[in-house]
Amino acid sequence: MNRPLLPLALLAAALPTAGTAQTTPADPAAIPDIVVLGRGLDLPPGTPAYGTTIIGRDRLTGDASGRVEDVLSDVAGLAQFRRSDSRSANPSAQGITLRSLGGNATSRTLVLLDGIPIADPFFGYIPFNALSPERLSAVRVTRGGGTGAFGAGAVAGTIEFVSAGRADLPLVSGEAAYGSYNSQQIAATVSPDIGAGYVSLFGRYERSDGFQTTPVDERVAATVPAAYRDWTTGFRAVAPIDAQTELQASGTILRDDRVLRFAGATSSSDAEDASIRLIHRGDWQVDALAYVQARDFANKVVSATTFQLTLDQRHTPSTGIGGKLELRPPVGPDHVLRIGIDARRADGTLYEDAYGAAGAITARRTAGGETSTTGAFAEDDWTIGRLVLTGGGRVDRWTIDDGFFRQTTATGTPTITSAYPDRDGTIGTGRVGALLHAASAIDLRAAAYTGFRVPTLNELYRPFVVFPITTQANADLKLERLKGVEGGVDLQPARWLSLSLTGFYNRLEDAVANVTIGTNLRQRQNVDAIVAKGIEASVDLRRGAVSLTGSYAFDDSHVRATGLQSQLDGLAPAQSPRHAAGATLAWAPANGPSLSGTLRYVGAQYEDDLQTAILPPATVFDAVAGVPVGHGVSIVARAENLFDATVVTRNSGGSIDLGTPRTLWIGVRFGRVR
CB-based contacts of 162: which residues, under 8 Å, 6+ apart? Predict the structure, then answer.
């Protein structure tokens, strides 16, 4: 894959030259009284009407695994396609969903970093290894369908990562840790002020000999641990242009290598992302951004009977480009009006070789295409005393173009040549909400929304094998469309205690599912709908050095299907637990040792659409302890799955994979906030 020079160009463009430094609040949901260098525009006052969960920097950098995807599990009901994290999952299975809307390796949740979508252009998965915790300030999770800017794709919710600002970043900081299975993690950040702005350079490397994901009774001579090695490096620069305007630029390079189950069953992914963003906070507020993604993925499939290479998905280059222009005109003190346009385009091609039992290539295949969305949006928040009304909509033009699948013999003789018709259309979506400050300690909220998602190139054109199941692609997939309503109450009976309760009903029409069509054979198909209803509850207690955060989700989710799919009607969607809960109890005095424990529970769920393979419930306990030793240096001990609970992550025709066993870490962390 070609290595773009855009990250270096953006760095040069973003070097600060003039302006006045500002401090940065720790909570991105707060509306500051001063201009904050390095942030986006303030959140409109109606944002809480849709319900949000905020995870702060201390929690992001304080998890036992050191990985943001595990921290996201604090939000009950949020799950990846499988229960594995990015050390032992296939990268293409790292899709995020909420509210048990069905297991799909593509992310049904819109994931943003500083307002920029980060999902893989071809597969739709989230490259979690590129999201180093030390470079982040907070993450905000909003369940339910989205609209507004970049609303396309937010059918299960929106996850917004916020980069660490100047006040979060020491001049020099870092961490090194050693853990079980000969595991190592090393990370460092250098964040000097340059003029009135700053630049932050970061790097992270980790590797491990890996743990055994295969149960003892299924291991053979070819079984190997899930070894991994990955690194990421990049920069973020913020440069004031004048007292109300600033330029932000970032670039990231990622390399990720993993081994899964058998010797030779390797996967690798590359990512090279760059973005530039202009923020103006005058009477006419402006948020303009552009980004580019250059990605690649490779995967080797090894037979579980012969233990020889059967499929080499050797190259999947893809490109994503996009941008947004949002304006906030001055329409009076009681209104916050947002209008704008945004666009995304993705293209990619799969190159793979199939091998026979004798080790010779039997077929060469290529497949790919292009998708795009271009939308215009408008949204207004109207404050009427204690009541805030919010509502907006968008109109999107979508396209699916140049789809193809070709197969040849090893010598190049064509055997299959398929070119799929181009498709396009226009779709409108919207949302409305109300937030009532009923009393000083009581907020009532209600919302209704619609959303949509265009199938990914992976779903449309790439088949895959997870022994012993083959899943076919489907170039005729329709768009997923969501309708939902919810209502909730937020309570703050004391300054140190917050409680939240939400009830919801979501209907995802034409949901893409892996549907069984034969023995060990599935195909991606649209089912009529997945209907999910349930409740979500959370608690946040912070009293002195003690804090307790917790959440619980009950999701009653069922498939609605007719015709040839009628056998699915009434069944639970694959990878959709009914119950999930998590809680973290922490003791962290301002100066001194700290200790935290995290308990997570996920209920039983089914691997497949026919409910023939169950994943049992699992409860995992993690712990972290830190002891400062002076001059910004701390010794940190971490324990993942301290009681060594068995977590089944895959049950495919009786072939089982297991999640992270007990893993112990010891390390050192250094750096002071300026």
Answer: 28, 39, 114, 136, 137, 138, 139, 140
DSSP label at residue 555? E
Range of the domain at 202: 6-218+247-670
In the chain, the amino acid numbered 358 is A
pLDDT at 163: 95
Q: Which of 24-28, 434-438, 622-626 has the lowest mean pLDDT?
A: 24-28
The single-letter code of the amino acid at 434 is: A
Q: Does residue 580 belong to any structural domain of this protein?
A: yes
Contact yes or no for 159/54 (Cβ under 8 A):
no
Neighbouring CB atoms inside 10 A of 13's CB total 12
| Of 584, 555, 594, 585, the residue nearest 572 (C-alpha) | 555
Q: What is each CA distance from 524 to 195, 413, 491, 558, 582, in whole angstroms?
A: 53, 28, 43, 18, 32
Q: What is the average pLDDT score of the chain?
A: 91
Residue 231 resides in a domain: no
Residues 183, 595: Cα–Cα separation, whole Å: 22
Task: Please report whether residue 47 resides in a domain.
Answer: yes
- What tokens appear for 328 in the block? 């906030």
Instruction: Give the number of domains in the chain.
Output: 1
Q: pLDDT, tens digit, for every residue of 604-632? A: 999 889 999 999 999 999 999 999 998 88
Give the CATH number of the domain where residue 447 resides: 2.40.170.20
Q: What is the pLDDT of residue 467?
A: 66
Q: Is the pLDDT of residue 27 over 80?
A: no
| 372 within a domain of the structure (yes/no) | yes
User: Stretch 240-248: mean pLDDT, rounded?
Assistant: 96
